[in-house]
Amino acid sequence: MTTEELYDKLKLIQKIKCETQNLELKSAEQGCPKRLYDSLSSFSNQDDGGIIVFGIDEKQDYKEVGVYDAQDIQKKINEQCLQMNPVVRPLITVVEKENKKFVSAEIPGIDLADRPCYYQGRGRLKGSYTRIGDSDEPMTEYEIYSYEAYRRKYQDDIREVPRVTLMSLDQEELNRYVELLKRGKQRLATLDNESIYELMSIKRGEKVTLSATLLFSPYPQAYFPQLCITAIVIPGRTIGSLGDMGERFSDNQRIEGTIPEMLDEALLFVKRNMRTKTIISPTTGRRTDRTDYPITAVREAIINALVHRDYSIHTEGMPIQLIMFEDRIEIHNPGGLYGRITIDQLGKIQPDTRNPVLASALETLGITENRYSGIPTIRMEMEKYNLRQPEFLDERGSFIVKLYKESKNDYEDMSNDEETNNLIVFCKTPRTRKEICDYLGLNSVTYAIQTYVNPLVEAGVIKLSIPDKPKSPKQLYYSVEREE
């Protein structure tokens, strides 16, 4: 960071008066903070890293108090960075403003293969942190495991299942799979079935693998009760909405069976709970039936969840969630994005595969193409239906797909409404609830947020600075570019 950039950063801090995902503020008027390792860890563990600015007192309404000694604080910062594993190499900048010194430490994000960065004094399990909004939160055991699993290329889809035997599998389905494997593979076709079982990870030694259990067991949930799909229909737009009779769910089903069976049942659940509209072409007069959502897009979203969810022991107690709201479908998949891919890269580059054996087996069975075409297909199908583009979220230990019923034109009309558009422009600078209320000329902050802001948040036009803590008193609302 140049000195000019640090001056600009100080101006921005006085404007927004808050910390952010990439910005931490420390007073340091009386000395260097002794506990920097949580921010050093959390910033190192995110791709964009982060910046710690010293000389701002958050408790005094973000007053610029300056640091006690610019030379000494640099030394103390470096001492704490050397206590991290891997060692953190900050880029330090010093400026003077109104006879006060300010120091910034840019913390670079480390390579995924080197994460988590942690404080050696507390060890990996207790010294690893992640950044959530404006706070540094201890990493969960699962989050730490996820880095380890990627680095060491663990294959949880072929871990052994002690209670399952080869003879307990559906022999007819297993034989059909083996015959499909042999087609067009001359060398494989010459092997006996026992050799194929071992070679293709149906079993390892005398133990059947998880993928074989999920594909060929008559009832996989006997061994893993939560490796299923819980499907519900909410009579509203938020969890907790009640129907006319006070019901929480309009429909509720626990979907079990093998992966192909769960896929079929989940699709039947969605079809049962969405409307089919008859559309008459103004040019040809032809009548066509169209469902609320393109079923191909729904199928791709469900199969992606079944194939790419995390099957480790850390998440085997978490089912896939299929939630149908009044205006959208959400599919929550245990395990966030795997490997180096980011949300922005989805459907554009070939990702790492978390469960390669399972994905390959489902390709052989004709369930999926295994060509990384799922996300592009979802986007194209939503476009064909003239629906708003899907939303993909990567949250702590969960990947979420949102398919909206709202038409693309309605979405654009809402964003193009003059009053709405003015509010969106106003929120290009992150705003507090009170600032938005004052801008709208209203007396009630709650009414302003519920009536004017929340619909834009649901539409993805306005984002929260602390999405995991929507009721945080430090919450800011800011507008984002609309997807074309």
From TrEMBL:
Any matching Pfam family: SLFN_AlbA_2
Keyword Nucleotide-binding: yes
Ranges of residues in domain Filamentation induced by cAMP protein Fic-like C-terminal: 428-477
Limits of the Schlafen AlbA-2 domain: 19-140
Stored Gene3D superfamilies: 3.30.565.60, Schlafen, AAA domain
UniProt KW Nuclease keyword: no
PANTHER family in the record: GLPR-RELATED TRANSCRIPTIONAL REPRESSOR, SCHLAFEN ALBA-2 DOMAIN-CONTAINING PROTEIN
Name of this chain's protein: DNA helicase
Organism: Dorea formicigenerans
